[in-house]
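Thread: quick sanity check before group meeting

JM: Hey all, I'm pulling together slides for Thursday and realized we never actually wrote out the predicted structure for the chain we discussed last week. Dropping the sequence here so it's in one place. If anyone has concerns about the input, flag it before I start.
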Amino acid sequence: ITKYRGIRYFIRIYRTIEKCEVKKMSVELKKYNTFRVIKKIVRDGPISKGDIRDSLLLTNASILARTNELSAKDLVISTGYEKKVGNKSVKGRYSNLLDANDSVCFTFGFLIEKSAITGVLSTLKLKILEKVKYNISNLSIDTAVEMIKKIYNDFLEHSCLSSSDIVGSSVAVSEKCYNELQVTMCRDEMSFE
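JM (edit): ok, ran it. Output follows.
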């Protein structure tokens, strides 16, 4: 009897772990689809939900959930309704157009070169708000990270933004620096705290 209970217990734990893995994959898929939707809106906006659905091959429910999530975070705004094309009459309702909300969405970009680090603060539509370049005499990974942190904090201080206003950041390394610094690539989040 104790062996039987042990096996049932093991099976119950295994099924629980399996359910957690499925939930984890589901969350990652939602996050991936959210990024695909915001990327489409930023590149092609203003755009209707139907056009997003057709180009990304997602279901109506998925598009609605992702756009509602983005609207709740003020990353996406409604910009009006689709206009008629020429004299052609459109059947049904007009499509509600969505676009990226430039007033609350900002990104950082950093370029690491052999003798300088450049930082750029821009909107999601890539309108550059501020650009700064710092010359460096002795470049190492540690100095590059410290300079990126300094540029990041300076931008936040001088622009009256908070870290919650920043949607994302990217770091580009020139080819010469990439080979000299022996940069290793990994997919990870950057933390400046």
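AS: nice. Strands lie at 47-48, 76-81, 96-100, 106-112, 116-123, 128-135, 166-173. Residues 2-44 form the longest helix (43 residues).
JM: adding both to the slides.
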